[in-house]
Design a protein that fits this description.
about 475 residues, Rossmann fold, 4 domains, three-stranded antiparallel sheet, 22 helices
Length: about 475
């Protein structure tokens, strides 16, 4: 695999974009044999460092009569284009400079007249085979004579990729099917330069859930976006591989990169557009989160809590051990890691008044047994200063059960609302230690323990 930086479009090429792309590829676990950072036999790997090479081959084509100088100004070309559109004709180049005498062209260029260089498209249809789409044919009339070198001396994309692919021994060109219309120009260039045409495979467009072309309105559309959301690289690679491709048998969906390499073949790529299903990606992400070592998930999750103001930037030993327990409690309920701080709100941001006034809690708080359960629970908790361990909490709940006769939801839901603000949530035996230990830690936001929460809730109830 060769990594090449295509940066001849100066206006859109900045070092930060290159750094982002390299970082994204490395994060995905994609590596390369040759490239600007590792070198190789086909250096240089930035097109901006290969400009003289492109000019040499363009001049060779001119000398061989396979390309010609074009002296048409941008204004002339625009007028011709508008005229063609008015007459409902394809807006292609008129061929005005195609028949100029080569000696005259050479003289005008020598006198400093600005000229682009155009490829002379042959007088026959351009045909090639696409691994995904099969045989493809374009009429030479619709291709026109494309510019390969602008009058500024800067080469165009469709030309430089051909030169680079040929000289870098590229055998397969795999890209989106929006590039299909570029291919006849490139095939004509390979043939004009006397180089073998590589295999082409144009992959189907990815659509959003509304079956429109995937765009920012559908959510994340860059690798960096998914990384910032807390999607794991192996989940994203696995999911992307399934878009427009299916393994043998078509039923299996979870693959490691090594398994994908072994299983993948271009012949199983479908020409039909693929729909990007976020829920499917999240399903895979949940799988890989559960499969990952806890230490890795904790390390990846930590920055989300720091940014949310829930954790200090540097965790001491006790805080890290507590954080590990909290992540183990919350991770099973998230699709992606950026949801963790929101899930942790019940630990960090207990709002007693909101719990009392929430419509979701109204049925629980109005239940006939609720007042008795909360009164009995308060009597047990407030009259006991011993550490609130899961075992102690279980003993207290058994006492409340015995005193009130409440059981099941009647017993646990009122206490859960009083301690977490919701009638559903994590298991008490795992939550209680997190609340108790967290209240003793030097965190940016104080974690209220069981007694503090109960006192706040009773105060909000006016008791």
């Amino acid at each position: 695999m060769v990594l090449r930086i295509e940066d001849t479009d100066v206006a859109r090429s900045e070092a930060r974009f290159e750094d982002q792309l390299l970082g994204d590829l490395k994060w995905l676990g994609i590596d390369w044999d040759e490239g600007p950072d590792v070198g190789g036999p086909h250096a240089p790997y930035r097109q901006s460092d290969r400009l003289e090479l492109y000019r040499e081959h363009a001049e060779r084509l001119v000398k061989e009569g396979k390309a010609y100088p074009c002296f048409c100004s941008q204004e002339e070309l625009e007028r011709d284009r508008e005229r063609a559109l008015q007459h409902q004709q394809p807006p292609i180049y008129s061929g005005k400079c195609r028949g100029l005498d080569p000696e005259e062209s050479q003289r005008r260029r020598a006198n400093g007249e600005a000229a682009a260089i155009r490829l002379r498209i042959p007088e026959h249809p351009i045909r090639f085979h696409d691994i995904v789409h099969g045989p493809v044919e374009f009429s030479n009339e619709v291709v026109s004579d494309p510019i390969i070198l602008r009058s500024t001396g800067i080469p165009v994309y469709n030309y430089v990729v051909v030169v680079d692919d040929a000289l870098m021994d590229i055998t397969h060109v795999i890209r989106g099917d929006d590039h299909l219309s570029n291919t006849p120009k490139q095939v004509a260039l390979y043939e004009a330069l006397g180089w073998p045409v590589p295999e082409f495979a144009h992959l189907s467009t990815i659509l959003g859930s509304d079956r429109e072309r995937l765009s920012k309105r559908h959510g994340a559309t860059s690798i960096a976006n998914f990384r910032e959301m807390g999607v794991l690289p192996e989940a994203l690679v696995n999911y992307l591989a399934l878009l427009g491709w299916a393994p043998t048998g078509g039923t299996r969906e979870i693959f490691s990169p090594e398994e994908l390499i072994k299983e993948f073949s271009l012949q199983r790529v479908t020409p039909s557009p693929a729909v990007f299903d976020m829920e499917k990606l999240y399903w895979l992400n949940r799988h890989y989160i559960k499969q990952s070592p806890p230490e890795r998930i904790e390390k990846l999750a930590e920055p989300f809590f720091v940014r949310a103001g829930m954790l200090p930037e540097n965790l001491d030993e006790h805080t890290r051990a507590w954080f590990s327990k909290m992540i183990a409690l919350l991770v099973p309920s998230v699709d992606k890691l950026d949801q963790l701080p929101e899930r942790a709100a019940l630990i960090f941001r207990f709002d007693a008044a909101a719990a009392v006034n929430s419509p979701d809690n109204a049925e629980v708080l109005a239940s006939p047994k609720t007042a008795d359960v909360l009164a009995a629970f308060a009597a047990q908790v407030e009259g006991d200063s011993s550490p609130m361990t899961p075992e102690r909490f279980k003993t207290i709940m058994n006492e409340v059960k015995a005193r009130t006769g409440a059981k099941g939801k009647e017993l646990f839901h009122p206490v859960r609302v009083a301690l977490t603000g919701s009638h559903s949530g994590p298991e008490f035996d795992k939550l209680i230690p997190i609340l108790e230990e967290g209240s003793q830690l030097p965190l940016p936001q104080h974690v209220m323990n069981v007694r503090e929460r109960l006192a706040a809730f009773r105060a909000a109830c006016g008791k």
